[in-house]
Amino acid sequence: MSPRAVGTIGDAPAAAAPIDDGPSFTLNGAPVVLEGVDPHESLLDLVRRNGFTSPKEGCAEGDCGACTVAIRQTFAAASTYRAVVSCLTLAGQLPGTEVWTAEALSPAPGPDGSIGDLHPVQAAIADGGGSQCGFCTPGIAMSLFASYYATVQPESPIAADAAGETIAGNLCRCTGYRSLREAAASLAGVGAKRPGDPFAARLAKPMPPRPAARVAGGGSVAYRPTTVEEALSLRADNPDARVVAGATDVGVEISRGGKRFPALIMLGSIGALRGVSRDDAGTRIGACVTMAELKSWIPAEKFPVIHTVLPWFGSRQIRNRATVGGNLMTASPIGDLSVAWLALGAEVALQSRAGVRWVPVGAFFTGYRQTAAMVDELLIAVRVPPRGIPAGSRRVEWVHKVARRDRVDISTVIAAYSIVVDGAGVVTDARLAYGGGAASPMRAIGAEKLMVGSRWDNSGMAAARAALDGAFSPISDVRATASYRGRLVANLFDRCLAETAIG
């Protein structure tokens, strides 16, 4: 069987591209030169320094959406606008990008003081009374803007039943959201754009490839390679550098923790890390595939656990930036997607100059926020083995998250299971993965062994259920006590059994 590419954005060039030492990006149609800019500076601060003050800083950690802007980028070979939080987008990531804020949505006032026609998104918010104090309104407008123009985003064009999801990453203290949801719903199914719409016209034109670039200022430098080989060379030359993909995690370290790094290596322009392919070894997902792309490029019927988890993964603005590889490298003990990879039996590819080695996800996590990756290695891909099961068998895939709220919140405990049951109702394979039960995401291997060969019902699973009591050593923190987390581990298994057991 020959490999089949799915959603591949591009391949790494054979030779190193020339480095752009005078990089710039486009802000509301005008170039902004990044020469001398500290690569740690946020896009939010850059935008406001350049006179566009509609994006606001509400939280500085990507939760509130007040700083939302739209970035035009290539997605599945097409051009699209993506809503992102500018507070976590770093200057070092910007060369060659195209950024839009709410100021660009309608024409400037004429000489007589008259105001041109409102953009449909602005009109929908105004007609529905969706703005009160106005602090959050520009960010909401840009979230609607991205969906209004999206031709390949899974959420768009805005569907009436997804109106709430469209603005799920935007907090508003004034409106109660009803008027905003109604504004989003009023744009549902809008197919024909305005005649002569400049934003639609831009999408019809291909975006030029983003060159290798260097942004230096403030005593630090950011490198943006275009091949894995370039990235490995930079890694070897800069062992203290921080490797960055979407920056949704390191961005918080910088904005809230004041972290600074002597060098940053930005991986977002490496085409070889931006795609999904399938062959006899399984489904291979590039490390720089975003969560939004992952949802589009892998089928829900083959990966129900992944598709269930992804809406819980931050806001839409975060999913448009956060990457598969970056999420794994954070090694969070409560990473929603990490437990899904464990349940699926996935492995990660780590590449150094010596070559590539594949490591099971269970062995990749070595402790609290620690991984098996060596200092000279880059995580380049995740691979899920073939999903076939014997004839007459069925696969039970189940995932549940316990949190104060299921979206835009950190898990207290999350469980992801993949269980194969034969025609006689006997378990032939089991993977029980948990986050929040220990210092890193882990499988309940002891319980799994007791499940195999037993019937998938209450009596058959009694021993496995008992083994889950005390299977992990959770911690107590502000979200839950260790005792509560320990009880959740077993209780979630009970819930899965009640919902999926035989008879």
Short summary of the structure?
The protein has 503 residues and is an alpha+beta fold.
Number of helices: 17
Residue fraction in strands: 15-25%
Strand order of the largest sheet: 1-11-12-17-13-14
- What is the level 1 CATH name of the domain at 19-216? Alpha Beta
| CATH homologous superfamily caption of the domain at 19-216 | Beta-grasp domain
Major sheet attributes:
6 strands, antiparallel
Helix content range: 25-40%
Proper CATH architecture of the domain at 19-216: Roll
Structural class: alpha+beta
Average pLDDT works out at 89
CATH topological fold name of the domain at 19-216: Ubiquitin-like (UB roll)
Distance between the termini: 40 Å
Describe the model.
- By secondary structure, the chain is α+β, with helices and mostly antiparallel strands.
- Among the domains are: 198 residues, Roll (Ubiquitin-like (UB roll)); 107 residues, Enolase-like, domain 1.
- Helices cover 26% and strands 22% of the residues.
- Strands 1-11-12-17-13-14 form a six-stranded antiparallel sheet.
- α15 runs antiparallel to α16.
- The N terminus is likely disordered.
